[in-house]
Each structure stands twice: as structure tokens, then as C-alpha cells.
Write a structure and sequence with these properties.
The protein has twelve helices and 13 strands. The protein is α/β, with parallel strands linked by helices.
Length: 293
């Protein structure tokens, strides 16, 4: 590991330990997760999701540009429920392998983690410990907000939550924020273009994030783990969720960042670390093993 990465990792791990650094998981944080029945990798990034949704066949080039665009096409042809059913089959009904990264993050007892993937691995890793779950919501009537809140008492498993209002939240519990949705305890997803238009608009208006998170996130630094930033949707969601960050916003682990990603990170004040999430995990576990000797 290069010396500059070692220095960044030391600062990151120290910040995680004191609770001032918030992990923000993207698609590449799921690298290595497979279906043990057939060895198939979990579809998480844009291309793999589009192929999985379209029975393994590429869609038209303009639809292959980004998953929300492809999902909008499917929604218009077959209805919104078709996209929901696909995501349920993918993330709720398939028994994926465990992820060492997610398991390690859960063991750190962090006060706040943001997971922009739609799988349930992090929720499973938190099973057995009380926590608050925030799930992103779009195009939903009967509420001004674009989120649903659930509380787990830690005794009922990852798929057993009770819905709560903001006033009922125990702010001392760890927070898992799933901005793009989850199939558990209920299926809610930000997936199609129409979903993102509604969700991002309400994020910008202040209705996509609970008040207790707005207060708690002030001055936090962020750690982007496996989050690609080549598309507008990813950048817009990130920008609004980390609003109010510290002057030193944090770090982004990207082994092969594009020039476009580098410019965006510089704009946000995030330091680029040319490494993968697995490199940080290896450094952390090596340090833990050394301390144990």
C-alpha cells in the first residue's frame, strides 16, 4: 500500500472510531458478493442492473446510458410494479453471500451509515442490534416527506421493523440511511427517472431527510466507498445528502477515478484516495490483528 494511502487510511480509521466520519456506500462496495447457488455476482452498478432487468440482453444504447433511464422505459411499457418486482427478486428473494466489508462496518458501532445500494446486506449485518432505518421514498401520496422511518429493537431480525414517526425516533440509536430504497421491511425504491426527479427535488427542498439527521450531520466528514460519480443522478443525491459537511469534507476511495469524477470531488472538498474499499478493509483488519498480538 502506498505511503500516501496509509496516511489517509489512518485518518479515516481514526475518524470512524470517534464517530466523526460517515461511510457512504456505492455499487462497487458490493464487489465480491455472489449468489452461492450459481456464482453470479450481485447486480449493483448501472450496467449490471440493466442487463439483469432485461434478461441478460443489452438495451438500446440511449437506455444503457444509466439504470434510471432503462427503468423508466420498462415502467412505461409494463408499469411501475415491473421494476419493483425485479428489484424484489434481485435483492429480497435471492440469498446472496455475506460481505466482509458490511460485516466489518456493522462491528464498528458507527452512529450513521449511508448505503446508496438497494440490497439488504447492511440490514442483515445489523440484525441483533437496535437501530433506526431511513428508507427513501418517491411519488408517494399522503405525506410531504420522501422517506419512511423504521425502528428495530434488535431482537426480531433484519426483516422485522416497526414504523415510527420522527417524534418517536431514539436519536441515541445507530442510523442506517438507504436513500435509494430497500425491499425490507417494505418495498420502496428510487429507481426510474421519474422517481429520481421527484426524490431529488424534495431532497433539495429539505423534505428528503429527517430533521434529526439534518441536525446530527452538521460538521461530519464522509467516506465514499465504491461510489461511482460519472452520472448526474449519483452526484445530485450525494450533494444534497452531505449538505452541511465539514470544510474538510472527507475522502473518496476510487482506484480509477475519471477526470470528471476528480473535478466533482474537488468541488465538494473530498480527497481522492486511489484505492478500493477492500484495501481499506485489509488495512483495518491488519491493524486490528496487530493490536491483538
Amino acid at each position: 500500500m502506498p505511503d500516501d494511502n496509509a496516511s489517509a487510511f489512518a485518518s479515516i480509521l481514526a475518524g470512524l472510531a470517534e464517530g466523526s466520519v460517515v461511510p457512504y456506500l456505492g455499487a462497487h462496495a458490493l464487489a465480491g458478493v455472489i449468489d452461492p447457488a450459481n456464482g453470479r455476482a450481485m447486480p449493483a452498478d448501472s450496467d449490471s442492473l440493466i442487463l439483469a432487468m432485461n434478461d441478460g440482453k443489452p438495451m438500446a444504447p440511449k437506455l444503457m446510458y444509466e439504470f434510471p433511464r432503462a427503468a423508466m422505459n420498462i415502467e412505461l411499457k409494463r408499469g411501475r410494479s415491473s421494476v419493483t418486482k425485479f428489484l424484489d427478486r434481485t435483492y429480497r428473494d435471492t440469498a446472496w453471500s455475506t460481505s466482509p466489508l458490511h460485516t466489518w462496518l456493522a462491528e464498528q458501532k458507527l452512529p450513521y451509515v449511508i448505503d446508496s445500494n438497494r440490497d439488504i446486506l447492511l440490514q442483515q449485518a445489523y440484525a441483533g442490534r437496535p437501530h433506526t432505518l431511513i428508507v427513501g421514498l418517491a411519488r408517494s401520496g399522503g405525506t410531504d416527506y420522501r422517506f419512511k422511518l423504521f425502528e428495530s429493537d434488535g431482537a426480531s431480525g433484519a426483516n422485522q421493523y416497526r414504523g415510527i414517526d420522527q417524534e418517536q425516533v431514539d436519536v441515541t440509536l445507530p442510523i442506517l440511511f438507504k436513500p435509494l430504497g430497500s425491499p425490507l421491511p417494505e418495498s420502496h425504491y428510487i429507481a426510474s427517472d421519474a422517481d429520481f426527479v421527484d426524490y431529488v427535488t424534495e431532497l433539495m427542498g429539505g423534505f428528503g431527510i429527517p430533521g434529526f439527521v439534518k441536525r446530527m450531520r452538521q460538521g461530519k466528514r464522509y467516506l465514499l466507498l465504491g461510489l461511482p460519480l460519472t452520472r448526474d443522478t449519483e452526484r445530485m443525491v450525494l450533494s444534497d445528502i452531505v449538505f452541511g459537511h465539514a470544510q474538510l469534507a472527507g475522502w473518496a476511495l476510487m482506484p480509477n477515478a475519471t477526470d470528471k469524477e476528480k473535478r466533482f470531488l474537488a468541488k465538494l472538498g473530498l480527497e481522492l484516495v486511489p484505492a478500493a474499499a477492500s484495501d481499506l478493509l485489509a488495512a483495518a483488519t491488519a491493524g486490528e490483528a496487530l493490536e491483538a498480538t
